[in-house]
Amino acid sequence: MSDLPKREIKNILSGDNARTALVAGAKKIFDVVSSTYGPAGNNVILGMPYGDSTLTRDGVTVAKRVILKDRAEDDAAQILRQASEKTNKTAGDGTTATIVLGYHLFNRGNRLVAAGENGMVLKRQIVKDSQVVIDWLNKQSISATDYLLEVATVSAGDPAIGQLVSETLLDIGTSGGITIREQEYPTTDVEKVNGYYFDRGFFALNAQVELSKPHIFVTQKQISSNADVVPILAAVLKDDNKKLVIIGDVRMNSDAMTTLFLNLREKVAMGFEVVIIPPPAYNDEASAFMEDIAIYTGAKVYLTGDDLKDLSIDDFGSAERVQLNADRAILFRGAGATNDIVDRAAIIRDSIDKETNANRKDTLEQRLAKLTGKIAIVNVGGSTQTEMEELRYRVEDAIEATKSAMSDGVLPGGATMLVRASELKISKLYKDALQDTFNKLMTNAAEKADYRLEQVLRSEPGFGFNLRDISKDPIDLAKAGIWDATRAVIQTVENATSAAGSLLTVGSIVDPIDEEL
Q1: Backbone CA torsion sign across 195, 196, 199, 201
Q2: Where are the alpha helices (DSSP H) in 240-379?
Q3: What is the per-residue pLDDT for 310?
Q4: Phi/psi of residue 484, each to 5°?
Q5: Which of 37, 6, 146, 147 is nearest to 99 (CA)?
Q6: What distance separates the 2 farthest-apart alpha carbons in the chain?
Q7: E strands of 385-482, at which residues?
Q8: Cα–Cα distance measured from residue 16 to residue 20, given in angstroms and rounded to the nearest whole number
Q9: What confidence score (pLDDT) does residue 489 get?
Q10: Which of 116, 47, 161 is nearest to 401 (CA)?
């Protein structure tokens, strides 16, 4: 009997009890995250299980640390947290606004469910409303070319950071790579380096994040069997330098991956290190990207039908340094011949000049930016670790918001645009939630929210308030340089609606009961 699996006992909540728990959990994450909302928002101290506490105003960072003791309450917090994280991933800004709007949509919708309305019907309604708002926001969006400094400054809450970020991104473009590195000195500066940038993460068999002068194997061939991977390992293990980067499609649940693990375990004492970087594209342009990488690193590209049995170390490329994390990888100073790289870049430039299709032209420009090594490292430092981490969060926000603006345009005042959207033909539920979101911004600034809301609603389109220097009456936000990335505002609406809609349809909760330690 002692060998039987332990019985997992569940806690079940239904109906009003389930909704009460969800509202309580949503309010807890809303209360702490919404306190950071806007230029006048407060910092939050994040205590750590070990080490020093962290101080931040970054909404998604705070949200990630909100894990509630009550499982049912945490279910609601987790759904709002995921919405904020999605906004962060796709837009880089608007993470706090996502939780604020999501909470108000859910809270107001829950009152209607408690009064007898159907949660599924309400979900369909708010999704329909959100599309009306998104369509309108897209029509209001304008090019960000002349407003990047303002976008970066608004996001960072600091003119100096805004200038540094906007100038850097104007230099390297949206396709260039930009990364942040902490430094001991209490200054912030930018270092430009030569490198090939991947805007996707990596898989490391031994969790290494930086390799010096590794062998780089480039292949369009899917690596899934022992016959594929053994020749690669054999070539590297004969060399004194046993650091390997595979750029290609290595199947995660395959014989090849098993073999890599086994060899790593047996040869780790010999200094054997392996990382796998997925291809930068899987579409029709994938082969062109892989050829670019091969030229940049001095490698041979192995194609789908190529036989690897005669593979030698001379077929591998290299780079001075490879830096990787879960979101991006950079090959610094590839070992490819300079003339080959220059010639390849010239061919791509010629193709850009001749290309008339906007999507294909954009892809060519991405290839050129990567091949010519437009990489910037923002060095961030502070007098204390807490100060440095808080500054890093703001720099990250400014970078992502500015990149979003460069891609999709800008809007004059994100929260103000949500107020304007509340005047569209949408449900009262959605209208009130949009205005609640603006009111929270004003409350954080110690303003009379209802009065300021009425002022905006009575003012001309494009007028609102600069919360860093609030005036008696609404001002022209465009002239004042108050811009937000369109993508961030739209992602706020989309992800907040998704989270609220999901919560409104919950009728029961089945959670495991945590045992006392």
Answers
A1: negative
A2: 255-267, 286-297, 338-354, 358-371
A3: 79
A4: -125, 150
A5: 37
A6: 77
A7: 410-412, 463-464, 475-476
A8: 6
A9: 95
A10: 161
> What is the pairing mode between strands 203-204 and 195-198?
unpaired
Question: What would the two tokens of residue 169 be?
Answer: 């991104």
Contact criterion met (CB below 8 Å) for 187 and 381: yes
- Domains in the chain, start-ordered, CATH in brackets? 10-142+412-512 (1.10.560.10), 148-194+376-408 (3.30.260.10), 197-336 (3.50.7.10)
Under 8 Å between Cβ of 34 and 439: no
Tell me the CA end-to-end span of the chain in Å, nearest whole number. 23
Amino acid at 146: D
Query: Tokens in use for 153?
Result: 């400054």
**Would you state the pLDDT for residue 150?**
87
Q: Within 141-221, where are the H helices?
A: 148-156, 159-172
User: Whose CA is closest to 24, among 65, 72, 60?
Assistant: 72
Rounded Cα gap, residues 187 and 191, in angstroms: 13
Q: Which two tokens stand for residue 66?
A: 């909100």
Residue matched to tokens 């389930």: 18
* pLDDT mean by block of 10 residues, the chain; 517 residues: 63 92 97 93 85 82 91 95 90 89 97 95 97 96 87 86 89 73 82 78 67 92 81 86 87 71 62 82 81 94 82 92 82 92 92 83 82 82 80 84 85 93 97 97 94 96 89 92 91 97 95 67
The three-state secondary structure class of 14 is strand
